[in-house]
Amino acid sequence: MSSGLSGDWPATNAQLKTPYPCRDGFTWLRHKENAQSGQIDIMVLEGKHSLGNMVDLLRKKNLFKPGLPDRQCQQRVRDHLSHLQEGCSRSLANGQEPHHLLLKEVSGKWRFSLDGEFRQKPIDSSRRKIVAPFLPSVSNKIIPNLSDVKRTPAASTMKYTTIRNLEETSYRSAPAATGYASFLKRIFKGNRTKWWADLDGEVWQGRSGQRYLQDTLEKELRDVPDYRNSATQLFFFSDNVKSSIDGRYGDLGVEVKYNRIKFSKELIDGAIHRGFVWVVGNPQRINQDSLEAVSLYVVRNGSEALTREEVDIYIPVLKAVAKMGILVLFIDGKTGETWKVAGKAEAQAPIPAWFSYHQPKKWDLELELITSDMRYALDALKSFKSVSDHRGLSILKCIPGFTKRFGTFREIALDSGCKAAVMEYGNEWRVIELGLILRSMGYDAAIVKYKQEEHKNRDKKRPLDLAGRGVEKRIQTVMKERFNVLLDWEIKL
Questions:
Q1: Whether the model pTM is above 0.85
Q2: Is 408 exposed, middle or buried (0-12, 13-18, 19+ CB in 10 A)?
């Protein structure tokens, strides 16, 4: 069982109104989805299960040891129901803070009862080192320490505002300024902890005493309870809640990564494409003139720096997406030093040595500037039915830093004097980065095809299904119109 946090009450209230209980294998209360505690969270949220019914369903899922008596199984469920409220003796003895939620039993069925104003008790500071009551964001003031918390209005005065954006309803209590500049100020200048330091991984793996980026950042942002509990689904070839961006600061999409700086793998594994889907695809249909997304990329110790050739390709890609409000912030996991490509009206800081020993030949290749000849080149490529049709007119090339298995593409010289590239890849998300990389390598037009049989996950080696919100079509259109890249997922959009 996890310890309770001060944001559990509003998080559960949001779940009752717009259920999306599991993400990345955990419930909104940080219990493992496929464990007893996580399944009990879900059943209480559904509000249609009695104590005996919960035991039966847990048995069917093989979550009790074979032969365990019903009496002990029922006690285990009761213990967790107590943990969700004021705590059970077992969890309290282990130093686990209860969740301080309210439950009620109606006709023998257990459910959450959180009607009315916010009433959650503050976490007991005698049992946890760094704690604070949940507080409304009544101004842009950053609360740096607990002495300032005591002078802030009581949590019981918190009111929730319902904001309807087309088909989606979100429940937010984010600060008034929610752009990436405000967010970076909050987590670096107004931070309480060094959430980026001494990490053991990105996502919690169930090992006690270790630090994981998603968990440390969530604890740092405990004064923003909807950071991990707002609607964050991306609806990109999936309506599964696991297909989501990591967090949300108002309307700012937040993705976190703890990886090496490896051009052929880690750098194309979500740092750009998750934010791209959030901003361009607008999956939550947020009624706003412009959206923003930020990826916090904490660099693992011992990571190799990028080569000169990789820098010349990758930096213009970062610049191209930054112009669209999609920022990637790199953080040295050892020193906490940060670096990013400069935004509008910002001076460009040189690339630090932990990222690369080289500066790019050109920071901005203006990949969004497309000529009529380049449009013609893309139209000419589209006339070919398959990649094999290009073989007599092309030569094989490989993206620098990639292996031939994953980085091979065909370079095609067209009559107009333009150069084009055609590539196949086994990941429906990464084709976004690969299209931009090919353009940054100097190709006037590019087609990147999703090849399902090459997907690394066995269960993904099948045709894609649309999520039904038009996200995929919007991304395809922007990639084509803005960057002269055609993304082909072999499905009618």
A1: no
A2: middle
